[in-house]
Amino acid sequence: MATTFTAYSVYYYDNQTPPVGHGMAGRIVDNGSTVTPLPDLKKTDLNGDPKVEGFADGGGTLRIAVTDYTAGTARPAYVYGAAVPGTPATATWSNVTNLYSLVKFGSYLYAIDYDNARVVEINATTYAQTGVSYTLPAGLTPSGFIAHGQALAVVGGNLYGLFTFVDSAWSNYANSLLVRFTVSGGSSISVGANAYNGNFAKNAFSLAPQSNDLYVAAIGGSQMAGSYNPASRLQKIDYTAANLGAAAVIDVLSPSAAFPYEFRDISFKGTTAYILLGAYNSSWQMAGKLVSTSDFSTFVTVNDFSGGAPGYFWSAQYTADNDRIWFARGKQILVYSASSPAAPVATLGLTAGSLISTGELFDNLNDLAYVGALGARTTLRGYRSPLQASRTARAVQGRTLAAGRPELTAEQLALLDEDEATA
Fold it and tell me: pLDDT grade, residue 102 (50/70/90)?
């Protein structure tokens, strides 16, 4: 068994007018038999949107980057050792105002900025920007929509990016875009004429490779309270195709009477897929199931929360180190042994002695990132709506109106539009 590290973040909003957010980042150490949460890696100078990313630096040392976001402002990233945190290095990435993914590719780190749909190259040793970046051009953005950088993944020796498109009101979405980057480390990032495909379902967010296929999970558009989005899809594409744009995007699963949910995450252990299914009920609790399948027709339930569970952060990923399934279940983190998943080996919650310390008020899970044992990293970031993910002024104001929910009602959207018009 290996000793592995996972990073997480939590937050709460106080009772000031307007409420002020407070965040904290912590670690989880898993030695293969005991899963131990270690809160308070950092809890000063973090606002209500704390983020964590795991990576291996230029020397192969496992690191955890902790940051948060303020609209339009590049915030410092504090880089700790995963095993021995020590005093963090501090990096400010001026071209990354809303970090949404950080991966190691070749000798460099690559970050994707959600609000600016931009990929930025970072020195893996000094953590300084190299000056190399790629911003999704207007020609790849559907007219009337705003592009967002959703995910990065290293697959088959290439760097892939996923972009989503929503209008300024966050009401309508366009199809999602997968791109295969051409990267010359230290020199350039580009996308060839045949290296992108815009035929994926709306509001896609999760990437998972298996054999020659890349699987993509998509909400299908906006989330709803009380019903699922019927346009949600689990899709796949042959990512090895020389002409990615001509490759078929195949629907693997769609919502059905048997599974009246949206597709919220996918990962693989060999040919076994772990799929997170869920939709918000009328009380804005998530109802769904975590299932496994080897043929996408017969499913085994790992965790059933069809009666509803609280919280707004949901993800489920398999990691080969210690054969684990990491399930962020709203306000909890459940850790399963994939070989015997009848019950979790650890259930971590927002209580003293678990994910938080005595006297702390943190009441929501915000992020989870598997750091690894030997440098391999699997992102565990769950889906976030534009209201949750964006750090624009509109999003900040909208979150105050939503009072914690991931979407605004029609009345709240109208109020937000009215306030912006008179500002």
Answer: very high
